[in-house]
Design a protein that fits this description.
It is globular and about 75 Å long. The chain has 14 helices and 17 strands. Helix 3 crosses helix 10, helix 4 runs parallel beside helix 5 and helix 11 runs parallel beside helix 14. The termini are far apart. The chain is of the alpha/beta class. It has two domains: 133 residues, Aspartate Aminotransferase, domain 1, CATH 3.90.1150.10; 254 residues, Type I PLP-dependent aspartate aminotransferase-like (Major domain) (Aspartate Aminotransferase, domain 2). A seven-stranded mixed β-sheet has the order 4-10-9-8-7-5-6, with helices on both faces. The structure holds pyridoxal-5'-phosphate. The site of pyridoxal-5'-phosphate has 13 residues, from helix 4. The site of pyridoxal-5'-phosphate (PLP) has 13 residues, from helix 4.
Length: 407
Amino acid sequence: MTFNIDKVRSDFPILQTKINGKPLVYLDNGATTQKPQSVIDAITDYYTHSNANIHRGTHHLSNVATEAHENARKTVQAYINAAHDHEVIFTRSTTESVNLVAFSFGQAFVKPGDEVIVTAMEHHSNFVPWQMMCERQGAKFRVVPFDEKGDLRLDILANMLNEKTRILAFNHVSNSLGTINPAKQIIQMAHEAGVAVLVDAAQSVQHIEHDVQALDADFYAFSGHKIYGPTGIGVLYGKEKWLDALPPYQGGGEMIDIVTETHTTYNKLPFKFEAGTPNVVGPIGLAVAIEYLNQFDFDEIREHEDDVLEYGRERLNEIPGLTIYGNSEHRTSILAFNITGIHHYDLGTLLDTQGIAVRTGHHCTQPVMAALGVDGTVRASLGIYNTKAEIDAMIEAIYKVRKMLGR
Ligand code: PLP
């Protein structure tokens, strides 16, 4: 189907909402995206017609629910082009996916004196779990800096990778700068040094290329709620050879094979990593969200979002005293800025009175804020349904705030 923005907007019922009497301008997609009607309907439909616990039931509903849940895994597999459906582990979120790898990989492969590398532009959820793992294992935690434009210093990374490095974790797209990191190149550098790689795709999987085999990612993590699916469902992709080699993250039902008083053996993939009753409906909703995106040519989505992004940068640059953060040539979806003399929190709150939803603060990236020398920014983050008219509404609202505050 060709990309028709009016049709797309009509697919997301919440966009009709009025906030403070003004039409909602939703520009907080980096935090979470809105859901198309098809996703909302799938969730209602599941609870209305198919609800049951999965994998171990003998009855009809359990079989229906199991089939829907496992078909959803195949939809995710196809979307990210994983070689096998059992390489797709359902988790709660990107955060849980990263914690799983940090814990299990750390336990299996990281010993005192080893090194782990992340970047200075990570979300805390791809930073703190590695720091914690390094503390547990006695390993050295190393951080790749970025330059003034917001590009990673690959020259420094090249010097950091060495025979002690066990794993490198980085985001494909930064949630506070919008930089698209050259994931393929970085992964190749790491692999040449014999280092495993985890890609945090929380801000990329919905906007740019997302082919795990083309990237050659060892691990790849994202959240359903940022790709137009429900909250409480995340994905961890791992190459089979790695997932086979890692010990389980949590113990409980479903992840076992045989349990005795003296010993437990574990289930095959993916169940080894899915202890307990899972979020059954989450993957079903996520699969419908992916099907929603799949109806379009992905390049058209990208083109549309880039068009709105570049227009947003152009319009923001007109505002006196405004600084944009994140000026990489390779960028997507994020407009981060401050205006001299106006606190980001005040600006965000006053924009809300005009129906404009943006995020303010450190965006769970305190190391980025430290590098930029600010305590926070205003962040407008784009999704499939945003328009240039909404950018205009935000700019007009910013001018009103400036006037109100005498700036
Ligand atoms: N990584 C990045 C780049 C993010 O932007 C976010 C959320 O904003 C996360 C990880 C964490 O996602 P979640 O809170 O869904 O686990």
